[in-house]
């Protein structure tokens, strides 16, 4: 089911991004390019996850082992609950980031999102999460603002960036 959701979200991203343009004049990247590529990647990865899930279920049905026929242990249930909780938390963080991006600015929101995922979901050390999130924010600024010349929502971070 999750794989189908990823494929549907990816297809929607790719389809809707075409309205913003994929390539502009002189084959320059337009604002719809990144969402289009991300959408395609979601479709591909969702299909890969779906394929692997289907294959593992078919294999388990055709060649059951003793472990497969025993009832699911509490450890397996706990791991599945933890994974589901992490995925739900990440989707919630993405929703919050989408709402905050016009207010705080894309780069600041993106850096906070990366920090929250690393520190909160992945339980990495705070200093490591801070260094990685600041580095990724700087890298995004270099790629989008300096190299590609794409202006993303600046929000309250406009004075910092010079917008």
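Q: What amino acid sequence fits the structure above?
A:
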């Amino acid at each position: 089911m999750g794989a189908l959701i990823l494929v549907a979200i990816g297809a929607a991203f790719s389809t809707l991004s075409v309205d913003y343009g994929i390539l502009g004049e002189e084959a320059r990247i337009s604002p719809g390019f990144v969402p289009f590529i991300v959408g395609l990647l979601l479709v591909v990865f969702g299909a890969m996850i779906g394929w692997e899930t289907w294959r593992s279920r078919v294999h388990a049905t055709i060649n059951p082992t003793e472990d497969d026929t025993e009832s699911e242990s509490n450890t397996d249930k706990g791991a599945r609950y933890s994974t589901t909780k992490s995925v739900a938390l990440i989707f919630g963080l993405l929703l919050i980031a989408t709402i905050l991006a016009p207010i705080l600015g894309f780069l600041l929101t993106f850096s906070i999102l990366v920090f929250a995922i690393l520190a909160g979901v992945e339980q990495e050390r705070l200093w490591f999460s801070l260094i990685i999130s600041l580095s990724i924010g700087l890298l995004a600024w270099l790629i989008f603002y300096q190299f590609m010349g794409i202006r993303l929502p600046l929000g309250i971070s406009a004075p910092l960036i010079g917008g």
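Q: And what stands out in the fold?
A: The helical segments are 2-17, 33-62, 66-69, 74-104, 106-121, 126-147, 158-161.
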